[in-house]
Amino acid sequence: MSAISEVVQRARAAFNSGRTRPLQFRVQQLEGLRRLIREREKDLVGALAADLHKNEWTAYYEEIVYVLEEIDYMIRKLPEWAADEPVEKTPHTQQDEAYIHSEPLGVVLIIGTWNYPFNLTIQPMVGAIAAGNAVVLKPSELSENTASLLAAILPQYLDQDLYPVINGGVAETTEVLKERFDHILYTGSTGVGRVVMMAAAKHLTPVTLELGGKNPCYVDKDCDLDIACRRIAWGKFMNSGQTCAAPDYILCDPSIQSQIVEKLKKSLKEFYGEDAKKSRDYGRIINSQHFQRVMGLLEGQKVAYGGTGDAATRYIAPTILTDVDPQSPVMQEEVFGPVLPIVCVRSLEEAIQLITQREKPLALYVFSPNDKVIKKMIAETSSGGVTANDVVVHITVHSLPYGGVGDSGMGSYHGRKSFETFSHRRSCLVRPLLNEETLRARYPPSPAKMPRH
Amino acid sequence: MEREVQRVRAAFGSGRSRPLTFRRRQLEALRAMVQEREKDILAAIGADLSKSEFNAYSQEVISVLGEIDLMLEKLPEWAAAKPAQRNLLTMLDEAYIQPEPLGVVLIIGAWNYPFVLTIQPLIGAIAAGNAVIIKPSEVSENTAKLLAKLLPQYLDQDLYAVVNGGVEETTELLKQRFDHILYTGNTAVGKIVMQAAAKHLTPVTLELGGKSPCFVDRDCDLDVACRRIAWGKFMNCGQTCIAPDYVLCEPSLQDQIVRKVQEAVKEFYGENVKESPDYERIVNLRHFKRIQSLLEGQKIAFGGEMDEATRYIAPTVLTDVDPDTKVMQEEIFGPILPIVPVKNADEAIQFINEREKPLAFYVFSHNSKLIKRMIDGTSSGGVTGNDVIMHFMLSSLPFGGVGSSGMGAYHGKHSFDTFSHQRPCLLKTLKREGANQLRYPPNSQSKVDWAKFFLLKQFNRGKLGLLLLTLLGVLAAVLIKGGYY
Predict the structure, then answer these.
(1) What is the value of pTM for the model shown?
(2) Cβ proximity of A135 and A122 under 8 Å
(3) pLDDT tens across B269-302, in order?
(4) Which end of chain A is less crowded, N or C, counting CB atoms within 10 A of the terminal residue's CB?
(5) Do A433 and B386 touch (CB under 8 A)?
(6) d(Cα B303, Cα B255) in Å, to the nearest integer?
(7) pLDDT, tens digit (0-9, with 9 covering 90-100), for B378-387
(8) Neighbours of B309 (CB within 10 A)
(9) What is the distance in angstroms between the Cα of A191 and the nearest Cα belonging to chain B?
(10) Where are the alpha helices (DSSP H) in B86-218?
(11) Per the CB < 8 Å rule, is B366 touching A103?
């Protein structure tokens, strides 16, 4: 048996021991996780800085704080969520107990990703632990410092058999995917999402796939462009554009294009100064392969701002493209970099048409003071989620499940949805052994003639 | 096949399934179909499974009508946007979850309850605003042909299409792209369906099977228990995904259980079971032979009679069954009830946990603590305590499997939710930009400290408290920007 097999078997045996069932145990583990974050914050920030040029503020505000929130929320709500949930009964079942009983699934695999390597591995883990599962973590090898750190410190704070970390590249991930799990949550690309689901199908393992797409951002003529552009710039260029929920491209009327460019520039200078390369808060591209990929998207485009890059430090300047052709390469794949194409459309209808001709994105953004415009955009498109008049923030609200639809993913998590995703909600109907008379009608022999009804 | 799916997709693209009035009319038409063509429907089911009109009505048609009525009643409530709880930073915004149709749904039906297992999912898919392609099982060919004939007479012909055929046609169909696939059938084909779905990243609901165990405790009313078990086991000649597959009990109870089950069988089907109009037949020769082979080497307490010509297998009970024999290795799906003796409830729990998670779990006992302990100690799709089958009948309970017995669930609201995309929406205004100042670069230690203060605050001080906190946040932002911190 391979080393990976052994690790998974050990996690399964640990799950079968039953020690994750009591809520007390799960809360203890979550508290351990919280202690890890508080005590090792410096190490975490160090790893994130090495992987993605994050600093103590961006690391905290963009990744760590949401995990802490999730842990606090989960600990507080666990007794309520883990309790049996009574359901509505019918006249026939009045004497019975009818409820949904939440139970752990077993061994959950969480495959993390590299852009928010801490948050996107640990936040799902919080839900999986709370639901009473054993959890195997496979952090992304691209964010290698965070991956190594997690492997080193998690065993110091959590049960070592129940929550192992497996590191490695494509070969190791392929091997992990051959094992049998009771749920797999994968965050990453659509292409690999298919591979994960295919592997899961062999064991009939349910999956949650958090994938990507091109998140459109429609800007209405009538809106306050100063504020809109500041918010868009914030969400687009955080982590150097490497955010699944980032606004991928802008759709707007040609008459406001140059204003948008000016105001975006203004915000960018406020955020990162004249030369973003010198800003502590501006991220770097994860590796050379992605650096080349993003720089390649600029070919043949009208660069209104930025457009420069430095391969040695994997720095790409905040870049804005104008009059972008919807057929060009930058509009054919998720940008996942600090390049913001602006595509001109002459009306809301044209914008909606452009959006619906493409795959359903993870997020959709619409800026307008007019509620009717917003509601029409929502009603006539589909996407994982929506924020109107801002970007990204819908994914930070506990009560709004975070997930995609179509090519952008399936299933969702965050808050209570995490707990449910990693649980089996088992229907239970418990009847008394009495009242046999009332059941007589259901037993054969049936009446000689079909009764009139 | 591709053209058929394109046609249905284009119909969905037209947008006409979005208004609730349209969906309601389709459901009402479906109800009219069931009511007006009842005789044809009962006859088709009867031909496929040798089922009496009464049984076909009470086992299938009644559930369909109930589901349509429920869906019609609840549609406005379920389709409405559901407000979501907000946090400090979104307190003054609109936050809600909006259900929307997925697009084109594929429903692959099964042959054992060929009408309800195809139509009940259809009801949910229509209610959720989707276009639907229905692929009935070819094994129940009369019902399959009837559905292909009737549905276009009552429902929108472009939005809801029936595709019939065997393995070849189903394979072709599975190459097409859908927005959700619901499959009812066996575990092996379930894997094939999920693999096909993976190519298009199509979410799936798989209603599969397994060996649903039935534990009978010493402390229980055996007369009642055995009657209920016999009812659920032998209905549809054992061809029910949630039939109690086998019984677990202490050795001392075995003989009593055999006797009482035999008595119940006599009550239900008379002395000559073969002549009872209420006793069905095995669906085809292949399954007949399969079930026949399960009896090899077993101790038959009663039953065991077979007639290949009519595919009749008598209600049969086996005793002292060895867990390693064939009858305990696969889902029986026939009128054979093995009894496996176990020492006690703990041994029963262990036995069950050594096997794949079943679709249903049954336990009979007066002792409610024991029932809870057995539920806690095992896993299964669903549970009925002190009866069998019935958790399927309560639509507020999601119906589905876990592990090898399936994934996802449906019935009632769970159908509606399964066939919808629940889309979270956060609507902010372009005002109150002050509150956002903390989030913009350039950073500073004070920003981190303020963020730690605000983001981790417990938000249960009521609206006024939240407002105060927001104002404090704006103040903090102003002060930071003004260089005071």
Answers:
(1) 0.95
(2) no
(3) 999 999 999 999 999 999 999 999 999 999 999 9
(4) N
(5) yes
(6) 15
(7) 999 999 999 9
(8) 6
(9) 10
(10) 116-127, 141-154, 167-175, 187-199
(11) no
